[in-house]
Design a protein that fits this description.
With 112 residues, this protein is mainly alpha-helical. It has a domain at 62-112. It contains six helices and two strands; from the N terminus they run ααββαααα.
Length: 112
């Protein structure tokens, strides 16, 4: 979707004013993406700060966390389809440690 299509969709279907879109575009155009240089064992890598934080599963949200936002995040981090996560979240969905591992909710199971 190009900018003109996005603007038309935002105005006609979402009720966003042209002024608000203009202010948003100005903020996006002025944004500077900070980057870092990370030394690794075999090489040096340059990446933006937000990609580095995502590697550690640290995320920043600009909205309140509601059911939809939580389901989107769980779907992204678990690899499950959004529809499955949303359906599973509509009721009590209890998992064993092994089931949570297979679902993608946890990375590993710690034992003594």
């Amino acid at each position: 979707m190009n900018n003109n299509e996005f603007d038309k969709f935002a105005r006609m279907h979402q009720g966003i004013s042209s002024t608000t879109l203009s202010r948003y575009q100005s903020a996006v155009d002025a944004y500077i993406n900070p980057s870092i240089i990370e030394e690794r064992k075999l090489n040096v890598a340059q990446m933006d700060v937000f990609s580095r934080l995502m590697m550690d599963r640290i995320i920043f949200l600009g909205v309140q966390i509601n059911d939809d936002v939580a389901n989107i995040i769980i779907a992204q981090h678990s690899g499950q389809p959004y529809e499955k996560v949303a359906a599973d979240g509509e009721r009590n969905f209890w998992m064993t440690a092994q089931e949570a591992l297979e679902y993608g909710m946890v990375d590993q199971i710690l034992t003594k």
